Amino acid sequence: MTAPVLSLTDITKVYGRGDAQVRALRGVSLTVERGDYVAVMGASGSGKSTLMNILGCLDIPSSGRYLIDGVDVGTLDERRLAILRNRKIGFVFQSFNLIPRMSALANVELPMAYGGVSATERRTRALAALEQVGLSDRVRHEPNELSGGQQQRVAVARALVTSPALLLADEPTGNLDTKATGDVLEILDGLSEAGRTIVLITHEDDVAAHAKRVIRLVDGLVVDDHRQAPVDGPPPRSATRTQPVPGGAS
Amino acid sequence: MSRLEILRFALRGLAANKLRSFLTTLGILIGVAAVILLVAFGEGASQSIQKSIQRLGANTLTVSASFGGGGFGGPAAGGSRQGNGPRTQARQLTLEDAKALADPEQVPSAKSVSPVVSTGSATAVRDGASHTISQLVGTYPSYFEATNKPVETGSYFVNDDVLAARKVMVVGKTVATELFGTANPVGEQVSLSGVPFTVIGVLKESGSSGLGSQDADDVAIVPLPAVQQSLTGFGALSSIVVQATGTDTTTSAQNEVTAVLNQRHGITPTGSADYRILNQATLQETVSSTVGIFTGLLGAVAAISLLVGGIGITNIMLVTVTERTREIGIRKAIGAPRGAILGQFLLEATVLSLLGGLTGVLIAFVGTRFTVAGIEPVLVPSSIALALGVSVGIGLFFGGYPANRAAKLRPIEALRHE
């Protein structure tokens, strides 16, 4: 029996004090098994970004218990949190968040540099990751020389290069056009098929349709938890990839 | 994550904004170069002044008679006394005084004692050419060594010449040129106030002494009895030059000389002395401490510019941290430990200041090759070490605050920063 990748128990998050107090999360409990592909949906202000930040150990919950791979995050100090972010979590942000003036290759190598991987192994793995997202011909380009879709694919490569237990994507297609959205979702589908655990945040139904499980948040509470495909099977859209209508097209 | 890796990140961060890095470096560069250069010029000035003092003779005390404010010459008439102490009778310096000072029992710190009689001017004539020597000195052979007057051609006179009162003379360069032109004066006859003297040596040119307008080479030195016999008469001595055995004994020599003369001249501890002692070492100390103050002032001005350069680094690092807050957030999100962020920004600041410091040292090295306003700068190694150390220290200290701020940022706050 393996521990679930994520296990949240009654997580709350309160911002501010007194009159200005905002309760972004009001007690979220959630378990994500290994190999699952979860889409968290909700309108803006529903608390989904807050949830994402807590999942990614970027923010600390006000109360509740949160385990990653069986490790209680609340007990970790800052140094261990950094190691945890480095080893267990891969981030894909809405605004790509690549480091400017560093080549795609250097960006992908960065988490491994902080993780203490040797230079030669880093190079090999970074090139492999870039190949996986179809950017082998763009390794020397800097972010400002790449299109949005290409930048997001570099970000995906950076997120998966450390083989994290969890891939977190915060509206990864939010800033992309239809074509690039299709490309990125296709990559995510492929990763899911390969057994990677993915949690994706979106407010687009078309994007959520790629996930095996869809969770809806309203006002900081889970209101709907709906499974679209079994945990150990392929993602629902993956099988239809060969069909002429691409996923995400409106 | 290795240190080399962090250094690479730091260098990449600096290379990303070359102009800014260059300007920041410039601040430190100017500061370091200014400190080293100004201290070098100060040191050069101090050394050249000390050299010209040393030309006057090393470790010597010059004892001369003092009569109130009057000069020497006339006997100690009661009217010329202006002392207010219970001085009974102002006495002149005599050969006996000099002999007493030469007693190794009483003045163990003295290496040699040379009684000196000097006349303001004497006219020297040779084959129709005439020259007024501004300083004619009658003394003992030890005078040459004590006052640092080496002979260039010919020789010194010796004790026998003094005992026999031989009419021989050693002349300064100016005298030799005036009377003989380019010819070799050694062995020639010169008549001083009608008395024939044989030139036996020419002093090495000492150059202008730097102190006073007198030409130090316009001098003739003859045995003491010779000048007394023929020119001044057997009166008082003008001065007694006492050479101490070493630099560290000049003070004790001065004390011993004072004790002997006080006893001989009957001066009570409360009375004012009828002689004064000019201590070469004291003079040198005074001058070098004065020069030291100026060097210190120059260094302080330069240090301020170094400090301003350091504040420039803080400023730039603060701007850099603010500007790259988002980047810091990204780095933290993908697992950069606090130490790596701190190290990167600290190293950026240190590299900036070290680069500026080293270039500053280089420029200072080049700058000290030039002579400015007759001062030959002398590099002081400790000033280089100090300037470099301070510049690196500034980098660490002033870079520390922004770097710490960057490292302490919470990833979520850093990521939200626009």
TrEMBL record, chain A:
Pfam families, per the entry: ABC_tran (PF00005)
One MF annotation (Gene Ontology) recorded for this entry: ATP hydrolysis activity
Organism: Streptosporangium saharense
Residue ranges of every copy of the ABC transporter domain listed in the record: 6-244
SUPFAM superfamilies associated with the record: P-loop containing nucleoside triphosphate hydrolases (SSF52540)
Protein name per its UniProtKB record: Putative ABC transport system ATP-binding protein
Alphabetical list of InterPro entries matching this protein: AAA+_ATPase, ABC_transporter-like_ATP-bd, ABC_transporter-like_CS, ABC_transpr_LolD-like, MacB-like_ATP-bd, P-loop_NTPase
Coiled coil: none
Keywords assigned: ATP-binding, Nucleotide-binding, Transport
Organism lineage: Bacteria, Bacillati, Actinomycetota, Actinomycetes, Streptosporangiales
UniProt GO cellular component terms: membrane protein complex; plasma membrane
Region annotation (Disordered) ranges: 226-250
TrEMBL record, chain B:
Recorded GO MF terms: transmembrane transporter activity
Keyword Cell membrane: yes
GO CC terms of this entry: plasma membrane
InterPro entries: ABC3_permease_C, MacB_PCD, Macrolide_Exporter_MacB, TonB_box_CS
Membrane topology annotation: Multi-pass membrane protein
Residues annotated as domain MacB-like periplasmic core: 21-259
Domain ABC3 transporter permease C-terminal residue range list: 300-410
UniProt source species: Streptosporangium saharense
Cellular localization per UniProt: Cell membrane
Family membership: Belongs to the ABC-4 integral membrane protein family.
Transmembrane residue ranges: 21-42, 293-319, 340-366, 378-401
Keywords of this entry: Cell membrane, Membrane, Transmembrane, Transmembrane helix
Record-given protein name: Putative ABC transport system permease protein
